[in-house]
Amino acid sequence: MFDPGLAAALLSPPGLGVLGLLIGSFLNVVVHRLPAMMWRAWWKDSVEFQLADPLAWQPLFGGQSTPPPQLAQAAQAVDAELRKLPEETLTRPRSRCPKCGHVLRWWENIPVLSWLMLRGRCSACGTRIAWRYPAVELVTGGLFAAAAAHYGAQPSTLLWCLAIALLLTMALIDFDTTLLPDGLTLPLIGIGLGGALAGWTGVSPADAAAGALAGYGVLWLVGFIWGLLRKVDAMAEGDMKMLAGIGALLGWQALPSALLLAAAVGAVVGLVMIAGMGRDRSKPIPFGPYLALGGLCSIFFGPALRSVWLL
């Protein structure tokens, strides 16, 4: 039987804050495992369809040519190494220490509290557990609670929480690996368009569609122009899809302020890293974390940011 009081409690700031802590723990797993799963799939595809496949070789090197035997040997070596790797998904195997393989018991996997109880170290081998794990859990919990306070105790608030989780995950993966997986960017576009059609985001379907197109198009145009001028790729397609998702979620009206904020913060951080920390100028700086910042700020402060931009 549906209990409105229980639903309101679960969708309240404390209720969604606790949910955010749990989701944040899962996001740590996604950030660690999803890129590895992608790399494994890419290597597997290379072995099966490219390295020693005449159908992949001949269109480029000629219809009568054959792949050199070294490629077949390399494909066999890569395949042998891939077979040694244990199967891994987002849910299996259970979380474990990367140093000693100790499988975490239930009480070692409680968001934030377990890290504090263990004093930030593995109970089996004493290896330090990065502070980022509880930080991600706390940030996710805080943002979920803020969404409940901002949008109210209603089911549509869960959509904003899902968007927040996707943005955080994309920011962390891009920061670590410079990857923005389609498995995260495309769902953000989908929930933006779907939320607009359902009337949950306060954005009209037309504005959501225009936001998706404009978000992708503006970064594509920036990358195209920069490529013509400097002969380098300035924007990855993942960034374009990510901004398309932000535009679908918040409407095209939110794009200028979100993009300007992302560019400004990214430029400042980039200059500090190059001038103060000696970062190689030729090494690309991931833009996803700054797009996520612009998107998150627009979720909570969209009208205020737009008023600043209009001034």
Could you please describe the fold and organization of this structure?
The protein has 311 residues and is mainly alpha-helical. The protein folds into three domains: 12-34 and 98-153, no CATH class; 43-89, no CATH class; 155-302, no CATH class. It is built from twelve helices and no strands. α2 (13-49) runs antiparallel to α4, α6 (132-151) runs antiparallel to α7 (157-177) and α9 packs antiparallel against α10 (237-250). The chain is globular and about 70 Å long.
Number of domains: 3
Shape estimate: globular
- The gyration radius over C-alpha positions equals 23 Å
- Tell me the total number of β-strands: 0
Mean of residue pLDDT values: 90
Oligomer: single chain
Distance between the termini: 52 Å
Q: Major sheet, described briefly?
A: none
Q: Structural class, from secondary structure content?
A: mainly alpha
Number of helices: 12
What portion of the residues fall into strands of 2 or more residues?
under 5%
Helical content band = 55-70%
Regions with pLDDT < 50 over 5+ consecutive residues? none
Order of helices and strands: HHHHHHHHHHHH
